[in-house]
Amino acid sequence: MPGDLNRINPEKLLRSKWTASQPRNREKHFMVTALLRDDNDTVVACEIEAVLSRRSTTIDWHELMDAERWQFGWK
Fold it and tell me: What is the pTM of this model?
């Protein structure tokens, strides 16, 4: 159902694969390459890398919960 939230355990995000629902610059498939943590060792963001271009960007990991923007796995 559109708008449903992806269920995510932030501790298991590293090396997970994601598909963007609306690709930009032919970048559709991504892999989480790093987790960024705060002083309490809580995951606050993640670095994702586009498979095609190897371009990396940092996003709030909560963005991956938006099923209208992201799908788990490579589709």
Answer: 0.88
Domain ranges of the chain: 10-72
- The pLDDT tens digits for 3-61 are 556 778 898 999 999 999 999 889 999 999 999 999 999 999 999 999 999 999 999 99
In one letter, which amino acid is 32? V
Q: Return d(Cα 25, Cα 38) in angstroms, integer.
A: 31
Burial of residue 32, with CB atoms counted within 10 A of its CB: 0-12 exposed, 13-18 middle, 19 or more buried? buried
Q: 63 — phi, psi (to 5°)?
A: -60, -30
Residues 6+ apart with CB under 8 A from 74: 17, 18, 19, 29, 51
Task: Please report, for residues 3, 52, 61, the alpha-carbon distance to residue 49 in angstroms, rounded to integers and kept in the order given.
Answer: 24, 9, 13
